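Recap from last week: sequence in, structure out.
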Amino acid sequence: MTALRVTGARPLCGVIQAAGNKNSALPLVAAALLTDEPVQLENVPDIGDIRVMLELVSAAGVEVDWSRASGTLRLRARNLVSHELPAALYASLRAGILLAAPLLARRGAAVMVPPGGDVIGRRRLDAHLEGLAALGVEIETADTLRFRAPRGLQGADIFLPEASVTASEQVLMAAAVARGTTVIRNAACEPHVQDLARMLTAMGARIEGIGSNTLTVTGTTPLHGTSFRIGSDVAEAASFLAFGAATHGDVTVTGVDPGEYRMIARTFRRLGVDLEIEPGRIRVGPDQALQVVPEWAGGIPVIDDGIWPQFPSDLMSVTIVLATQVRGTVLFFEKLYESRMYFVDRLVAMGANAVICDPHRAVIAGPSGLHGIVLQSPDIRAGIALLGAALCARGESLIRNAESIDRGYERIEEKLRALGADIGRVPG
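Predicted structure tokens:
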């Protein structure tokens, strides 16, 4: 185990290239199992979750050739040897559940333990199970999940019980190779779901409605190989922008799609932060107002999250840290996960003026002079937020369990040092 040692209260300044989107890369790796031809992915981030996913597919017999320096990943699933993969790997990665559809398509069955990942509240599998069952999959649930498709996958009209990203991806992969036509209603439409739909289309699938919450899929077999470039990681890019503003710095992130930042820019404006958005780049410049903008009627503003295109849940934690450095009071309402707010008590220990109202809401009043302490990173998003707080704080902070941050953020200390942070990795 390692820790990140940070001496804070230094403005972040400079230009940084956005990494590839982890939430796109993971389902795209799974989708590569739908064909026995080569699939090449570009802009793959070198992070912990990707490494675990590649261990899983390697155990299934997929040939893996990954150039971490260039971000190029070549996969070929011409000889899948198993539909039952190591339980320890499934238990550590939420996205492992996405292998159910391709294993069903290629092997007729899949056996796995319930997926693990971050403990940020209840993360139901109902949408996965209902969607696959509608396509003809027989499912047994206990300590182990057992999926069988004795008659193959068959198209259906499906209404998902929630707009779950991973469930939408799961059902989309299964529908792409099912017999007949499938309509997926109440589908998630985040950029990473769109990435998967576009790669499946490049593999020969027929998908209509990409970018909407209704997808019509005409099953196509066999799918063929392709080459696909993964889009940039909105969560990583927006985190660097939030930390640039919170430290009174000047940060530019390149390699981004400005169209994905409309709601993020609107939310940042409510905290007195204006993003300069141009094709391929976004900048948070110096001399920001850092002043909460009240509601039109004069009330305390509420920042809440929701399904795309609403404000992403993955950015709530770093935005809370930004709010500790902004003059005024704001209520944060985390609607999707009941445990995501618990890290706020660590901000209070650092000197933040914050109240956790209940598992879903917290009030932040700033600006607060944070001071360094010893911290434990509980998960990816809370971990990066605590790192941001350490960047703002006076003195030295030690953030243990840095590997949890590595699961979602590529070479984090290297990138922050390039922006002027005083940060290093030490035994934890």
